Amino acid sequence: MRQEWFAEVQKLMFLITATGGYETFPDITEAALKIVEERHQQKLSGGRRKRILQSLRELPPFPDVRPALQRLRSQGAHLIVLTSSREKAAKEAIESARLSELFDDVLSAEKIKRLKPAPEAYRMAAKKSGVKPS
Predict the structure, then answer these.
(1) Range 111-130 average pLDDT
(2) How confident is the model at residue 90, as a pLDDT?
(3) Is 22 exposed, middle or buried (CB count within 10 Å of its CB: 0-12, 13-18, 19+)?
(4) Three-class SS state of 106
(5) Which domains does the chain have, with CATH numbers?
């Protein structure tokens, strides 16, 4: 059900962003969880709901992630994370995955109140990184 839940998160995030709206990522993840609960006619306890929402901060990386990031770093790439999550949550997830030393910065699209895939999020990341959007 985690895949179904995250697919619902993405649908809500894209819909809200495409229509020019804004909601925080935690609010979107919680709304998506409620949708999945209703779809399956299940009601989660407060503790279980909290553990599920917290699980986004503890996802393990795919096996090829570390070698790919290390290769990019060895070639001089400046690596940042651009996320729709809150900055603190993203940093916790990266630390939990033991990847934090491979990134130069973590940027949250929430700072500009336009979540990915809104172009403003990517422009913000380019500006903060000192690169042209192209």
Answers:
(1) 94
(2) 93
(3) middle
(4) strand
(5) 2-129 (3.40.50)
